[in-house]
Amino acid sequence: MRLTAEFLADMVSAAAERAEGKIPAKYRMVRRKEFDRDYPQIEELKRRYQYKCQVCQHRIEVGGGRYYCEGHHLRPLGREHRGPPEASNVVILCPNHHAEFDLFLFAILDYKGRKRKLEHMLRSLEATETHLLVRHRIAPEHVDYVTEQFLTRLDLLTRS
Ligand SMILES: [Zn+2]
After folding, report:
1. Which 3 state secondary structure label does DSSP give 115?
2. In angstroms, what is the span from residue 100 Cα to ligand 1's centroid?
3. 62 CA distance to ligand 1 centroid (A)?
4. Domain locations along the chain
5. Could you say which DSSP state residue 113 is in?
6. CA of 92 to the centre of ligand 1 (A)
7. What strands lie across the sheet with 106-108, from one edge to the other?
């Protein structure tokens, strides 16, 4: 049987529908919110970074000369963190590094420069030094917020 793009698209959407019923509502909501959060400043940043992750430089090619990457709010939006939806609070990441930033597994050690050192909470997982490559202004207060969250979690981790 020959695979066509349409056939594959149907397969994918059928699989997504099947999965939909099995994923607890709260997880579905997180995903949907993430896509809703893209606004013009995030799109502009994605273009500026050529859709490459600021940590690993990976970008996901999706065909037709297009790429997939994600905008992450250092201080997350929403009730608990109340971060602002602005470029100085956003970094562009691949899905893996986005997940690690969401979990506050990284602290940003430098306030300035194009290559800012990152500290991973489970340092042993990082074989080499990790950096965040920066070509736009990141507000220092958002870096501080990430550090606070990182330290809170590190404290919980070392206490248990
Ligand atoms: Zn990455």
Report:
1. strand
2. 9
3. 16
4. 37-159
5. S
6. 9
7. 106-108, 115-120, 130-133
Mean pLDDT of 4-20: 65
> What is the Cα Rg of the chain in Å?
18
Please write the tens of the pLDDT for every residue from 68-83: 999 999 999 988 899 9
Token couple for 7: 């056939």
- 91 residue type, one letter: V
Q: How far is the CA of 99 from the centre of ligand 1 (A)?
A: 10
- Bridge partners (DSSP) of residue 92 are 71
**Which has more pLDDT, 158 or 28?**
158
Residues with CB under 5 A from ligand 1 (ion): 53, 55-56, 94, 97
- Please state, in angstroms and rounded to a whole number, the distance separating the CA atoms of residues 62 and 136: 25
